[in-house]
User: What shape does this take?
Amino acid sequence: MIYVALLYSIVLGGGRRVVMTDLRAMAEDIGYTDCRTLVSTGNLVFEAAQSSVSGIEKALEIAFAHRFGKHVDILVRSRSDWLKLAAANPFPGRDGSEVGVRIMRTPLDESVKTLLERHREREQIAVIDGNLWVDFGGKASETRLLSAMTTKKLGIGTARNANTVARLAEMVA
Assistant: This one.
């Protein structure tokens, strides 16, 4: 079965970052096959025996901590779930670099909109299948909304722009 894994961060500290060849090698060392990465931001596509997503997340997080000396949250989606996520983009006509999704380990509900409301300016938000989609209406780095989209406030998750989501969907299709 094909899976997509997303690292919350590739920063190891002390100016060090995870190199994607090392990430692929780590996944291969724990038995995953056809390991491929997309850009250098911690996006891994691989094949594994069918297993629970939470089991794969745990195996990857343990292997990561062992190999790189630091815990990093890793979120995993099956091929079918990834394709569903990519198709659910509520802002399909917008510039993919200005649209992002925070993919969540524990699904969000509509109440998150209330939490984020006071931080919004030009952004549009939507919660679809527990993930938070945002049309930033410009550069994401120029918005106050990011300060409210933290793990402490929303729970474990990681963000990717719509271009990356679409490219990963092409890889697994």
